[in-house]
Amino acid sequence: MPGSANKNPVRAAYDDLVARGALTSDPAQRDAAGALDRVLADLLAARPKRLFGFFEKSRPVRGLYLHGEVGRGKTMLMDLFFAAVPFPEKRRLHFHEFMDEVHVGIAAFRKSARGRDDNADPVEAVVRPILKSGLRVLCLDEFHVHDITNAMLLDRLFGKLFAGGVTLVATSNVPPDGLYKDGLNRQLFLPFIKLLQEQTLVAALPSEQDYRRLKFAGQQVYAFGIGPEVQAVMDRLWLRITGGEQGVPGQVDSIGRQIAVPLMAMGAARFGFADLCEKPLGTRDFVRIAHKFDSLVIDNIPQMDRTRSDAAKRFILLIDSLYDRGVKLAASFAVPLEQLGADDRTAFEFQRTLSRLTEMQSEDYLGKGLRDAVGTEPSLSP
Q1: Could you tell me the pTM of the whole model?
Q2: What gap in Å lies between CA 295 and CA 6, rounded to an integer?
Q3: pLDDT greater than 70 at residue 27
Q4: How far apart are CA 45 and CA 376, in angstroms?
Q5: Is 10 within 8 Å of 77 (Cβ atoms)?
Q6: Residues 308 and 350 sit within 8 Å (Cβ to Cβ)
Q7: Deepest of 131, 300, 319, 348, by most Cβ within 10 A of its Cβ?
Q8: Is the predicted pLDDT of residue 51 greater than 60, yes or no?
Q9: Which residues, in sequence order, are CB contacts of 163 under 8 Å at separation 6+?
Q10: Which keywords annotate this record (predicted)?
Q11: How far apart, in whole angstroms, are the C-alpha atoms of residue 321 and residue 342?
């Protein structure tokens, strides 16, 4: 239909992926794409206009809270929506990354001279620069509240964001009523649930099919050796994981810096070992990567002897982060797993890594969904 791509860009992008064979057509996903198109159309209609040389304040737009089981394509749909938003006043990140930024901002404000004032409002101090930046759309993936500190903060935080004209588009494994279920003092959290239901359209993405698991069903996810044959195996695995998409370069934002991603597509990323373990990255960076992608392909993992002690330590932290999150891993190794760690200085830690690598290729691990693992301060400083 002429012009439909312009009128419904999210659905058009979804249909294009289906036509290319990257996705299997799913009526529930297509309906969700239509709901995201509605949010986008409302945002464009409410875009602030210049009046007497100044931009008038944008009108509030109701967002979308999309919930469903793991592997249903929620993150993929959010990616399509975010790519379709044609203006720069937008942000997309994992819910825990956003809350981490908020807590860092609150801690910094409390240490400042203004923060020591009895009347100081740290939430207002954090929200003010967000609104001043002109942010109009905040996309938060995997909205999940299990921490009482966040639970008690969200009503005031999002009340100020919504009042400032920010539209929320969120994905979650649970409906709003399921957030902070059985949490301590949950009655104090209920006003936020009401606010969320007022400010977003709550939409379910029902289905019993987990597409993420289908990508790995029956697959040998590790290859051993070097050379063109192993490279060909990894290329085939990559295309299976991405539904035939070659991928494009990208980046992961990690506390003020960017981590280059050689290839990313359909919720997966492909790195060389050197991209991750021979660069000054730490646990917090690896946690960011684990929250950004549901699947990783890592090429050319070498034997780690004494000449690669730092790289071995980073590899240990990387595998811990991926395992704790439940990220699916496909990888090529120069040597069998039992020969991988050849440095006696990291031998003890490497035993846990080998155990996890063994489990990560099992049908049981590959059949499970992502876990809600929250990162901590890095134990290996960049």
Answers
A1: 0.72
A2: 31
A3: yes
A4: 41
A5: yes
A6: no
A7: 319
A8: no
A9: none
A10: ATP-binding, Nucleotide-binding
A11: 22
On average, the pLDDT of the chain sits at 87
Average pLDDT rounded to a whole number, residues 189-202: 95
Instruction: Provide the β-strand partners of residue 296.
Output: 269, 329
Q: DSSP letters along 265-317, please?
A: ETTEEEEEHHHHHSSS--HHHHHHHHHH-SEEEEEEEPPB-GGGHHHHHHHHH
Name the residue ranges covered by the structural domains of the chain.
4-204, 212-366
Which of these, 279, 363, 359, 349, lies nearest to 324 by C-alpha position? 359
Q: What is the pLDDT of residue 343?
A: 75
Structure tokens at 177: 């009523």
- CA 155 to each of CA 100, 108, 134, 327, 364: distance values in angstroms, whole numbers, following the listed order: 16, 21, 21, 31, 39
d(CA 252, CA 286): 10
Amino acid at 328: K
Which residues on adjacent β-strands are paired with residue 328? Answer: 295
Helix (H) / strand (E) containing 262: strand 257-265
Instruction: Provide the sign of the torsion angle of the four alpha carbons 196, 90, 92, 20, taken in this order.
Output: positive
> b or e along 192-208 (b: 16 or more beta carbons within 10 Å of the residue's beta carbon)?
bbebbeebbeebebebe
Which among 286, 344, 272 is positioned nearest to 314, based on CA atoms? 286
Task: Tell me the pLDDT tens digit for each residue of 162-171.
Answer: 999 999 999 9
pLDDT beyond 80 at 359: yes
Domain 4-204 has CATH 3.40.50.150: no
Q: What is the CATH number of domain 212-366?
A: 3.40.50
Contact 328, 212 (CB under 8 A): yes
Calpha distance 1→96 (Å, rounded): 40
Phi/psi for 310 (5° steps) reads -65, -40
Residue 208's pLDDT band, with cuts at 50, 70 and 90, is low
CB 36 within 8 Å of CB 92: no
Distance CA 39, CA 12 (A): 15
User: Measured in Å, how far apart are the chain's first and last C-alpha atoms?
Assistant: 52
